């Protein structure tokens, strides 16, 4: 690249950056800081160091600055994260998007209304340890990474039929969650989705789900039974690892792959029915101390030697 061309491209980039800055202005209105977009007259609530001392926040549907009205439609990334004194926040119907980590570690927040939100940011409510219930609106199509992880007081979740995916770690370490109903619109449960949900006793997996991700239910120590529908084709590695109360499991013939260490450390597991559709098993039942015998289907051509020597394999 010639020197004149490099200078030209640099000037172009600088002019684009300058134009972008020119279209975004920052204002503080009633102690809340906004980034306003002058092109489309919208405003995003952004981080302000004064938030840490607030206990209640009401976000307006719009703000007016110098005679111009801006619709508040987003709460920005990290906006209220670590606001540990915040107990209540009112979000207007105009807000359709929550940024990444926007309420993470708001440890005093007990409830939140997100009725008109269409997009949740990654880890948006992660670590909200006082949050007891949440209703996800029908405008949401995906529960994103870690969105409610470490919400240790969460006991109730309502998931609408609009949701098609539960992405990785979305309810990880929700230790007070006892049950959850997954709608039949969901096709995939992501990695670590319900990992370490120690109070989860039952789970309804609909017949729309085709894959259970890696470590999806690992550490669910209160889970006694699980219904795997015949729509599921793959069980991820360590999927039920450490489910120490799981007593029996029937794996349907739709399953063609069982991941590494899938049922490792399921100490109460006594009965297993394997499908005739699998061709490989790798340490699937390692340290299942209650399992005394297992019948390997004729379809299995590869058998890794990670089995506990107390299990009779035939």
Derived from helix and strand composition plus strand pairing, the structural class reads mainly beta
Strand content: 15-25%
Compute the average pLDDT: 88
Extract low-pLDDT stretches: 7-22, 308-314
How would you spell out the order of helices and strands?
HEEEEEEEEEEEEEEEEEEEEEEEE
Give the % helix. Answer: under 10%
Main β-sheet description: 6 strands, mixed
How much is the radius of gyration in Å? Answer: 25 Å
Please tell me what the overall shape is. Answer: elongated
Gap from first CA to last CA = 68 Å
Q: What is the number of helices? A: 1
**What is the strand tally?**
24
Features:
314 residues; mainly beta; 6-stranded parallel beta sheet; 1 helix; elongated
What does this structure look like?
With 314 residues, the chain is mostly beta strands. It has 1 helix and 24 strands. The chain has one helix spanning 3-22, and strands at residues 24-29, 32-37, 42-45, 56-58, 62-65, 68-75, 88-90, 97-98, 133-135, 142-143, 156-158, 165-166, 179-181, 188-189, 202-204, 211-212, 234-235, 248-250, 257-258, 271-273, 280-281, 293-294, 302-303, 312-313. Strands 1, 2, 3, 5, 6 and 8 form a 6-stranded mixed sheet that branches. A 6-stranded parallel sheet has the order 10-12-14-16-17-19, with no helix packed on it. Strands 4-7 form a two-stranded parallel sheet. The longest helix is centred in the first third of the chain and has 20 residues, at 3-22.
């Amino acid at each position: 690249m010639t020197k004149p061309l490099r200078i030209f491209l640099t000037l172009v980039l600088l002019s684009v950056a300058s134009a972008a800055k020119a279209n975004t202005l920052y204002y503080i209105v009633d102690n809340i800081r906004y980034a306003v977009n002058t092109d489309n007259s919208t405003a995003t609530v952004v981080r302000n160091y004064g938030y840490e001392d607030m206990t209640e926040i009401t976000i307006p549907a719009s703000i007016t600055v110098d005679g111009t009205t801006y619709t508040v439609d987003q709460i920005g990334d990290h906006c209220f994260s670590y606001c540990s004194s915040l107990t209540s926040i009112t979000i207007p119907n105009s807000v359709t998007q929550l940024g990444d980590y926007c309420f993470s570690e708001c440890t005093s927040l007990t409830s939140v209304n997100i009725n008109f939100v269409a997009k949740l940011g990654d880890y948006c409510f992660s670590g909200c340890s006082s949050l007891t219930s949440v209703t996800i609106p029908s405008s949401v199509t995906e529960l994103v990474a870690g969105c409610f992880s470490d919400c240790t007081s969460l006991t109730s979740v309502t998931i609408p039929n609009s949701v098609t995916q539960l992405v990785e770690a979305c309810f990880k370490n929700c230790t007070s969650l006892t049950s959850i109903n997954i709608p039949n619109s969901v096709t995939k449960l992501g990695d670590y989705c319900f990992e370490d949900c120690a109070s989860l006793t039952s789970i309804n997996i609909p017949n729309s789900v085709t894959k259970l991700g890696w470590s999806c239910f690992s550490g669910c120590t209160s889970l006694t039974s699980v219904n795997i529908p015949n729509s599921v084709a793959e069980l991820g590695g360590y999927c039920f690892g450490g489910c120490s109360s799981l007593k029996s499991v029937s794996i349907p013939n739709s399953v063609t792959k069982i991941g590494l260490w899938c049922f490792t450390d399921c100490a109460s597991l006594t009965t297993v029915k394997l499908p005739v559709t699998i061709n490989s098993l790798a340490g699937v039942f390692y340290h299942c101390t209650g399992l005394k015998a297992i019948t390997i289907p004729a379809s299995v051509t590869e058998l890794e030697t990670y089995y506990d020597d107390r299990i009779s394999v035939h």
